[in-house]
Amino acid sequence: MAAELVVPKTTYASWELGMREPRFEMLVRISQVLGVTPNDILVGPQKGSVEEALRENEEMRRRLNAVLEALTR
């Protein structure tokens, strides 16, 4: 990865170890190489829409209720 970004291995290693952080321009280059957005690197990939998250939460609630009901029988 260091070679792809044209930075010394020691610089790249210091980013991986959390000793230093890349500048924003480099963060953009890293994201391009990885095929993600800079935001994905900074805060992690985002889930879909709020509606999708609510549907997933509702499904999880239904599954948990079914398990609890089965356990109390």
Description:
By secondary structure, the chain is an all-alpha fold. It has 5 helices and no strands. It has helices at 2-5, 9-16, 24-34, 38-43, 50-71. The protein is elongated, with a radius of gyration of 21 Å.
Number of domains: 2
The arrangement of helices and strands along the chain is HHHHH
| Mean pLDDT over the full residue set | 85
Bin the helical content: 55-70%
Largest sheet: none
Low-confidence stretches: none
Q: What's the alpha carbon Rg, rounded to whole Å?
A: 21 Å
Query: What gap, in angstroms, lies between the N and C termini?
Result: 56 Å
Task: Note the overall shape.
Answer: elongated
Number of strands: 0
How are the secondary structure elements laid out?
Layout: H1 2-5, H2 9-16, H3 24-34, H4 38-43, H5 50-71
List descriptors:
single chain, 73 residues, mainly alpha, 2 domains, 70% helix, 0% strand, elongated
Task: Provide a concise account of the structure shown.
By secondary structure, this protein is mainly α. It has helices at residues 2-5, 9-16, 24-34, 38-43, 50-71. The mean pLDDT is 85.
